[in-house]
Specification:
Oligomer: single chain
Helix content: 40-55%
Number of domains: 2
CATH topology of the largest domain: Rossmann fold
Largest sheet: 6 strands, parallel
Distance between the termini: 50 Å
Length: 258
């Protein structure tokens, strides 16, 4: 059968449109998967850090609030500075360095016993009251779960054991694996590698506004569980959902998977 030039051009154009988008990239033959199939959590939407700062208040009643604020701020400043300067030290080490700085800056005594108590408080964390029920509800919906945190693996596993959450998380991921900290894209990539899913199918659940922004920069659909009512950051990336507890996450997953 002979095909004339006009019919040949029509067929060629149709084939080209099937393979290429307007930008010239090859389109996948597989339909794009929709919805949320996994959730990656920062540590603190699940683990309640307030006992750490309660201990600070008891040990330093006159300067407890200033101590807590400076220590917390310095921890994350040190993580960012070390990534920027290519001088990595794990999160436990950054906590210790920030603690020593804080005591020196506020001119308060930090003996070895007090230092050990404050450091070990990070190994004694337990889940927020709403967390176990929400996590198990997500598991029943066949949603994969992971920690994706700056905390060391030892710290995360301690929190899981303290909270009776053994077997709930499919992955326990510390950014220590790649010797960096969030919001470095290499840190967020660990979630994709672990779940083996596209980023649009992984809801990242942040505790801090800067982490919500970083995950948003990376391309995760991000839920900000703003438990301590922090002010939003001005970093040019807004979370897809914001709430004071984990119910905002279950609502988001339900709506995305409807």
């Amino acid at each position: 059968m002979r095909i004339n030039r006009k019919d040949f051009l029509k067929q060629g154009a149709g084939a080209a449109l099937a393979l290429y988008g307007t930008g010239g990239s090859v389109l996948s033959c597989r339909p794009k998967s929709r919805g949320i199939r996994a959730v990656a959590f920062d540590a603190f939407p699940i683990l309640d850090p307030r006992p750490i700062f309660g201990l600070v208040q008891r040990l330093y009643p006159r300067q407890g609030k200033r101590f807590s604020l400076l220590w917390r701020t310095r921890i994350f400043e040190y993580t960012w500075l070390r990534v920027s300067g290519a001088r990595y030290r794990d999160f436990w080490g950054c906590i210790e360095d920030a603690l020593v700085f804080t005591a020196r800056d506020l001119k308060v005594k930090l003996d070895e016993e007090t230092k050990t108590r404050l450091m070990n408080a990070f190994l004694s964390l337990k889940a927020w009251p709403d967390a176990p029920g929400i996590l198990r509800e997500l598991k029943k919906r066949d949603i994969k779960l992971a920690f994706l945190s700056n905390m060391t693996e030892k710290m995360l596993l301690s929190g899981i054991k303290n909270s009776g959450l053994e077997g709930v998380f499919d992955h326990v991921i510390s950014t220590d694996r790649v010797k960096t900290f969030k919001p470095d894209p290499r840190a967020y990539q660990l979630g994709i590698d672990a779940f083996d899913l596209p980023r649009e199918n992984i809801a990242f659940t942040a505790f801090a506004g800067w982490d919500a922004a970083g995950a948003g920069w990376f391309g995760y659909p991000t839920v900000w569980v703003n438990r301590l009512n922090f002010s939003p950051e001005e970093l040019g990336a807004k979370p897809r959902a914001v709430g004071r507890d984990l119910s905002v996450l279950t609502k988001f997953v339900r709506e995305e998977n409807a």
